[in-house]
Design goal:
DNA-binding transcription factor activity (chains A, B), 14 helices, Rossmann fold, HTH_LacI (chains A, B), four-stranded parallel beta sheet, about 350 residues, homodimer, six-stranded parallel beta sheet, 434 Repressor (Amino-terminal Domain), alpha/beta, 3 domains, DNA-binding, about 15% strand
DNA sequence: CTGAAAGCGCTTACAG
DNA sequence: CTGAAAGCGCTTACAG
């Protein structure tokens, strides 16, 4: 069944069938109805390849997930916990707009060519990139060909510097404010010895969270120690190693700010095994608010990153840019939120209770 | 840049360029090299729509995720925990074979038309369906048009009955054996009072797990009680309600077999709030082995469903069928595994320890 | 308002 | 071994 068949059956030309399908206004209601009837009767749907070849959009966007984890790491925990809701949200929002989503995993620099390939083969109209280690040069290249891009978690300054032309939206959360809220909450609980379990420094959020930690402590005249600055790379295992090292080293801080929940969960496990109580002996804070954060005991105090809204924004922006002719680089920061649960408490003897802050 | 440009630059015809791209054997090495050089120099990639229109495959499969949860249920917990690894795995395996994946969410019966549409528009070569409430008639219809399908978690008997013709692979896990192993493990621990928190009965795995529970108890001459047969629908909230009802009713069983981990986690939470200790007062077992299962305290004893292998199988089968001409319906059952952790223990006074079974 | 025709960028018998 | 040509199924100026 092709448009020619529909035309014959409806007693019109292929041109008219096409005009009906594409909602041209200069088709009389009578004709439109006649054609639609035949279309519905035969469940006709135009061949997408033919439409695209004739100049239509693909109505498909590419979602590229750059994964921090190794390809053969079966757990791939970071991705599962953190990205899944994002992927869901992108698909939901795209589908709601009649747009298809082609999802790709990127595990290596070489895989990055997939992005270019998908565009060169004209499989997609636009792209969304999420994950670690974004190869900005490839993206800049594709963007300069005129394809819109939403980029999640990337330095706006670097985008402005590296993307000379193109339609690009950068979607971040306000991790600086989130970090600040968390640290001021801890300081408010009386903590003066606050360690950090940092994330990947080649990641925008990794750097922001770390930099803001340093900044806020400095503002409050609080010093940290080398042994309390742990490098966890956003990965559970690395985090566990670093925490163990700190424990063996001797004196613990009274609070540990972890740059993501995965690492916080890992830290909690190590502490528990070492009979270090949470939050009595040490307060542990996370970042992201992934699903398990509310399930573990003690439930994790963390900073919520609005992944769903970010996904929606990414889709919205990319579709908006698709309809525009001029280049444009836009920056969007969505609000983070402090989520107080049970893994942090007042420093003993500080005379402050957790409750004063949840109210 | 199109194949014509490459042809001109390489001093050959479009036909020859096409033969090089499609690996025809009757191209002399010399010619092939010459053409490839130009292709690489200009980063040429053939327009996919043109190829498809000319008769090539799309090299894209559709992944359709039927979601039990409501569209506007922000948590959509079931899907996140259970399906995410599956989606990941499908994408990994497809990409590894140079195949793209178009991911679609299905929330309503009406959404089911998306499947038909994707095929009619010739966007995909084959489909994989996962999730609850599979509208088998739509699938049968599409399958009868010759498009291969892998269906996850569906009754083989019903497939054989309803799909008269087509290329279909049904991929299940051995939930019957898994259920049996779990129940015999519990019975071995001395439990004679075993309740069940059942799943969705319009789901194949939901029915199998329930039916096998009844069967195994009967085989062991163990009776259950009406008040211990809870209907959780695979959903945390329903599960919590049912468990609460059972608690209020009075006597508890010594063990509760939950038909998925989400419900088990939910049950554990309710018990904890009611000061009922796990596993001392009641043993709780799950099914699936989702990520949080190993993280909660006590860690959940459960049955592992080999989601990753199932995803790989689904991709493999669908690609295999793509290369075949004849119709074929195949049934595949992948092994489940009993995972003993901390949420189940011997009935007090039974004189049996957990250790006797983990060895 | 509507049809005939050109064109989108490939692939593949066909003929040589 | 290789090129000219037909054809895939649409869309859209163009002409009327």
């Amino acid at each position: 069944m092709k448009s020619e068949d529909i035309a014959r059956l409806a007693g019109v030309s292929r041109s008219t069938v096409s005009r009906v399908i594409n909602n041209y206004k200069n088709v009389p209601e009578e004709t439109r109805r006649k054609v639609m009837q035949v279309i519905e009767r035969y469940q006709f749907r135009p061949n997408n390849s033919a439409r695209v070849l004739a100049g239509k959009k693909t109505d498909t966007i590419g979602l590229f997930i750059v994964s921090i984890a190794e390809k053969d790491n079966i757990n791939r925990v970071y991705r599962n916990n953190y990205f899944s809701p994002f992927v869901d949200a992108v698909i939901d929002n795209a589908n709601a707009n009649g747009i298809y989503v082609l999802v790709n995993s990127i595990y290596s620099l070489q895989d990055y060519e997939k992005i270019k390939r998908a565009f060169l083969e004209r499989r997609i109209d636009a792209g969304i990139v999420v994950g670690t280690e974004k190869e900005i040069d490839v993206i800049a290249q594709v963007a300069s060909m005129g394809y819109p891009f939403s980029i999640i978690d990337y330095s706006p300054e670097e985008i402005v510097r590296k993307i000379k032309k193109g339609k690009v939206a950068v979607i971040n959360s306000t991790d600086d404010e989130g970090t600040r809220k968390m640290l001021e909450y801890l300081i408010g609980l009386g903590h003066k010895e606050i360690g950090i379990l940092s994330g990947r420094m080649n990641t925008y959020s990794g750097r922001i969270r770390y930099d803001t930690y340093l900044k806020v402590l400095a503002e409050h005249g609080i010093e940290t120690r080398k042994e309390w600055v742990l490098k966890g790379e956003f990965i559970k295992k690395e985090a566990a190693n670093e925490v163990m090292k700190m424990i063996n080293h001797g004196k613990l801080p009274t609070a540990l700010f972890c740059c993501n929940d995965d690492m916080a969960l890992s830290a909690i496990e190590v502490f528990r095994n070492e009979k270090i109580r949470i939050p009595e002996d040490i307060s542990v804070a996370g970042f992201d608010d992934i699903m398990p954060a509310s399930l573990v005991k003690p439930a994790l105090t963390t900073v919520r990153v609005p992944l769903y809204s970010m996904a929606r924004k990414a889709v919205e922006e990319v579709l908006k840019m698709l309809g525009e002719t001029s280049d444009n680089i836009s920056i969007h920061s969505l609000e983070t939120e402090l989520i107080v649960r049970d893994s942090c408490t007042a420093v003993s003897g500080a005379g402050i209770t957790n409750d004063s802050f949840t109210a």
